């Protein structure tokens, strides 16, 4: 590692150009950066997909939305990059921290260099020469695999930023929490099911979700709600119909409203992506049909059950199975998921909530 003093850096730029779940898992590192130096401010550069999440993270003071040219489907214009460089130069940042997964190159360091930001820190596999002033050598996946939260905390740890309470956190809006209370009926438990995943490898089968919904309706007195984006309304309707259920369908609400609904819930059922980390951030237990494609994305410091079927191609880091199968999730039975949902609230969840820092 090439080190540099960051103790006098008050105006920090944090770059995380990935999805909502990635930004949520970077949250503890962002809080550590902000709290390490009195009076420090943290401005984040985020992707359009994570912009709504950036507004909820307590470690971020303000953020810039940017379509990076190296991200999938960005459609970036070189003029946008030039405008960003000019904007960053005008803001006169003291340092920039580039957060990546190990398969990404820290290309934003070049933008930060052109914007005359004097300190630039990132994990990097190749020798970065002058592009990074603080170089943390990339050792994943050859030497070890860390959870995504641990990876980003280790990066800022090299800059003198430490955090004692490292669970995921977001800012909850009281009015959305109060609105979410309308979904409760009497004293019945509230279960949220969010079936959709962006990556095919993370999608629990539609028929299995329907069987889980049917099982919960048969074996519990809970109110079950299906949630998703507006584009997922047809999927949710199919699951509801297959389960012969009257579960309400809630689609197209804002991320703040979604957070309020998850906060009101007793248990959440979803895949290992954004909604699972959002549930963890509001301390709601989560049952996760977990695809085993990426060991860095397991539920973090949460009351959770990660349900998976072991396969030879586990930890492949692929969006689709390289062997052309879907066993890692198809082999997770609806019975396992129903049992997890029933058992989670009985495992000292209230005590667990109060013990969180």
Explain the overall architecture.
By secondary structure, the chain is α/β, with parallel strands linked by helices. The protein has two domains: 11-157, Glycogen Phosphorylase B (Rossmann fold), CATH 3.40.50; 174-355, Rossmann fold, CATH 3.40.50.2000. It has helices at residues 20-36, 51-54, 78-91, 108-114, 148-157, 174-180, 206-219, 233-242, 255-264, 274-281, 327-330, 334-343, 349-355; strands at 11-16, 41-46, 62-65, 95-98, 119-124, 134-137, 190-194, 223-228, 249-251, 267-270, 286-289, 304-307. The strands form two sheets. Strands 3-2-1-4-5-6 form a six-stranded parallel sheet. A six-stranded parallel sheet has the order 9-8-7-10-11-12, with helices on both faces. Helix 1 links the parallel strand 1 (11-16) and strand 2 (41-46). Helix 1 (20-36) packs across helix 10. It is elongated.
Fourth-level CATH superfamily of the largest domain: Glycogen Phosphorylase B
What portion of residues is helical? 25-40%
Strand order of the largest sheet: 3-2-1-4-5-6
Distance between the termini: 31 Å
- Shape by Cα distribution: elongated
Quote the beta fraction: 15-25%
Mind telling me the C-alpha Rg? 21 Å
The level 1 CATH classification of the largest domain is Alpha Beta
In the CATH hierarchy, the third-tier topology of the largest domain is known as Rossmann fold
Q: Count the strands?
A: 12
For the record, the CATH architecture of the largest domain stands as 3-Layer(aba) Sandwich
Mean pLDDT: 84
SSE pattern = EHEHEHEHEEHHEHEHEHEHEEHHH
What structural class should be given to the helix and strand makeup?
A: alpha/beta
Provide a count of the helices. Answer: 13
The largest sheet, given as strand count, sense and whether it forms a barrel, is: 6 strands, parallel
Total tally of structural domains: 2
Taking pLDDT < 50 over at least 5 consecutive residues as the criterion, the unreliable ranges are: 348-357
